[in-house]
Design brief:
- The chain is built from one helix and nine strands.
- The chain has 124 residues and is α+β, with helices and mostly antiparallel strands.
- The chain has one domain: Lipocalin, CATH 2.40.128.
- An eight-stranded antiparallel beta barrel has the order 2-3-4-5-6-7-8-9.
- Strand 7 and strand 8 form a beta hairpin.
- The longest helix is centred in the N-terminal third of the chain and has 20 residues.
- The termini are far apart.
Amino acid sequence: MLDRLVRAIVLVAVLGIVGGCFPASRPQRVDTISSITGRWVGELADRGGAYPITITLREDGTWEGVSLGQRFHGVTKLVDGKLHLTNLVTGVGTTYTLFESDGQLVLRGLRDDGFVAGRLKPVP
């Protein structure tokens, strides 16, 4: 038990030191869907591993995606400055928060059931 506690304290200390060496990501409020439209690529991760994904966000609030050869589509809503993408094929939703660090934009998402996380970057 004490060994586990010591390891946890050391891990927190190391993460704090390493975290201080890199610029912090800052969440950005999304005020309009049109401000983040376009093609985004990245990965989804669950207990089984990580999977590539590409999503195209449109100004009208619709989106299309592809992952592992499967196509899906849905609608986007803005909720408290975050994006909520609902997959119309599965009915499952994911909330994405926009982050910016050193001029790089990243969408980080978590599926509503908490089992899948995503990370997307815009394609220039």
